[in-house]
Amino acid sequence: MYISDTGNHCIKRIDLYLQNSVIVAGICGYSGFTDGPYGFNKLNRPTNLGITRSGDIYFYDEGNQYMRKLKSNG
């Protein structure tokens, strides 16, 4: 399951079975607008996640007023 941690400017993958979370996009606690792989990309209030069958994630970067895509391969 994926969630947008809007207030922390990041997207996380939640594993309910293992009871942990992993950041998959953005740098939690830092807003901005930078494309690139995890650890370099920055988001500003991500919301409204949609996931394709191939695993790509589409979301609205509300603070930047921009639709964005996170590829399943990073």
Structure write-up:
The chain has 74 residues and is mainly β. The chain is 0% helix and 45% strand. It contains no helices and six strands. The strands form two sheets. It has a three-stranded antiparallel β-sheet with strand order 1-2-3, with no helix packed on it. The radius of gyration is 11 Å and the shape is globular. The chain starts with a strand and ends with a strand. The model has no long low-confidence stretch (mean pLDDT 94).
What is the helix tally? 0
Helix content: under 10%
Strand runs, count:
6
Radius of gyration: 11 Å
The largest beta-sheet arranges its strands as 1-2-3
Q: What would the average pLDDT be, to the nearest integer?
A: 94
Order of helices and strands: EEEEEE
* Through-space gap between termini: 16 Å
The best one-word shape is globular
How much of the residues is beta strand, in percent? 35-45%
Question: What is this structure, in a nutshell?
Answer:
By secondary structure, the protein is mainly beta.
Q: How would the blueprint of this fold be written?
A:
Layout lengths: L1 E4 L4 E6 L4 E7 L19 E6 L5 E5 L4 E5 L4
Antiparallel strand pairs: 1-2, 2-3, 4-5, 5-6
